[in-house]
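Supplementary Note 3. Input sequence used for the single-chain structure prediction.
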Amino acid sequence: MPCYRCGARQTDPVRGASPWKRGVRRETQVLVCPDCQRLHGLDLEACETCGSTTLICRLGEVECRSCGAVRAARSDSLVGSDMGASSASPASSSTPAGLSGLSAEVEAALDRVLGRA
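The predicted structure, written as discrete structure tokens, is reproduced below.
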């Protein structure tokens, strides 16, 4: 997965912790390269409980690595809209539109890995 800001690809890591940072942006897990981490305004989501940007997104949930708070990911139809999370219910996060978006992402990833055109 490349850096979401500049598109740089990760190289094989050296020993120790990776200098790349994980975050969540528009309900999607993203990576930020060390160069882009120095910039301000990364536009990453922050934890509603503690304000940290060390979030991970997995299986329809967003978890804060700092305080452990977990919330349901908002549906695709609400991401980027003016409504935000104001009236999203947990049931609305499993819409068919969200599943079709996930299916497209999985298909694209398989095409990249298997070398399909």
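The chain has a mean pLDDT of 77. The beta strands are 21-25, 28-32, 55-58, 61-64, 70-72.
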